[in-house]
Every structure is written in structure tokens, then in C-alpha cells.
Amino acid sequence: MPSGRKEKELTGITQLGNQQTKYQQDYAPEVLETFPNKHPDNDYFVKFNCPEFTSLCPMTGQPDFATIYISYVPGEIMVESKSLKLYLFSFRNHGDFHEDCMNIIMKDLITLMDPKYIEVWGKFTPRGGISIDPYCNYGKPGTKWEDVAWQRLSQHDLYPEKVDNR
Predict the structure, then answer these.
(1) Rg of the chain (C-alpha set)
(2) Cα distance between residue 151 and residue 71, in whole Å
(3) Disulfide-capable partner of 95 in 37, 58, 77, 89 (CB 3.0 to 4.6 Å)?
(4) Residue 109: what are its φ and ψ, rounded to 5°?
(5) Is 81 annotated as ligand-binding?
(6) Active site located where (predicted)?
(7) 164 noted as active-site residue
(8) Model-level pTM?
(9) How far, in whole angstroms, is CA 109 from its chain's centroid?
């Protein structure tokens, strides 16, 4: 058992350490798993960098590739990283526009965890000479995080980076 975690805290975690991992071939939010946040009174960011995200264009069926950044401030529960990897993999044969994929991911994680704050940013590689980088966020209504969400959204990408690495 991992150091620092009690067995009851890991109840329901089925993917981590499983040598019989099954990779879903289409959108599968049911693979997401959680565990208790050991520090729910602390506000802190957890960031996932997912450089191998793929989905399909719903019009052409061609693959789209992206790096997905997921940052969140957890509440009582957190997403387990292997289940998140399997969930993101499930988009591989899923046909949806870039903007839809990012909003679906964010909304599924809100439903799963009820975080204080979350943002999802997809940086897609160009296809047809253009790249699309959708950003979405959410702050829990009625909390300071609702204001943080508006501030981050309204200030997002005011100074975009030079795009020369794709």
C-alpha cells in the first residue's frame, strides 16, 4: 500500500496498480476514480500536463493532437491520475470539436470532484494551417473561487506566447 494512505482512503481505486488495464475505445467518463483529499482546508493547485491527447474531427474523422493542461483546487476529493489518463485516452476515437472536448472534460471533472476551482486548456497542433487553443474554467459559485475564475478568464492569454514549437 502506498505510504501515507490508509486502506479505506483507497477504497474504490481499481485502476492504480492494475496490470489488466482495459483501454476504452470511445468516450468513457465512468473510468474516472477519486480519493479523499488529505488537505481539504488548504487551497492548492494540482496540475496535470497531458501532452499526448488525441480526438477525432467530427467532420473529417482525422485525428487531432493536443497538450491538455488541467489545473484544479481540490475540495474534499481528488481525481486519481491513472483513471484520468484512461479517461483522456477514451477520447482517442471520439469525434468532437476542440472546444467541445475541453468543456466536456471540465464538466465531467466538476461532476466527479466538485472542486473549488478548475481550468482546462487544450493546445492543439495545427491542421490546415491553424491551431486552436480552447480554454475554459469554473469557480465554485458563491465562493472566492467564482471571482478567481472570472479574473483568470478575463485576463487569459492577454500576452500570448510565441507559437513556434508546433
Answers:
(1) 17
(2) 15
(3) 58
(4) -70, -35
(5) yes
(6) 57, 64
(7) no
(8) 0.84
(9) 7
Q: How far apart are CA 67 and CA 90, in angstroms?
A: 15
pLDDT in tens, 106-151: 999 999 999 999 999 999 999 888 889 999 999 999 999 999 999 9
Q: What is the grid cell recorded at 122?
A: 487544450
Where are the domains positioned within the chain?
A: 24-155
Contact 53, 88 (CB under 8 A): yes
The runs of H, that is alpha helices, within 7-166 are: 81-89, 98-113, 144-155
HEC profile for 118-149? Answer: EEEEEEECCECCECCCCEEEEECCCCHHHHHH
- Among the options 41, 50, 57, 101, which is catalytic? 57
Round to whole Å and give the CA distance between 35 and 9: 6
26 is catalytic: no
Closest CA to 35 of 84, 70, 85, 68: 84
CATH class of 24-155: alpha beta
Nearest Cα neighbor of 89 from 137, 35, 53 is 53
What pLDDT digit, counting tens, does each position of 50-102 carry?
999 999 999 999 999 999 999 999 999 999 999 999 999 999 999 999 999 99
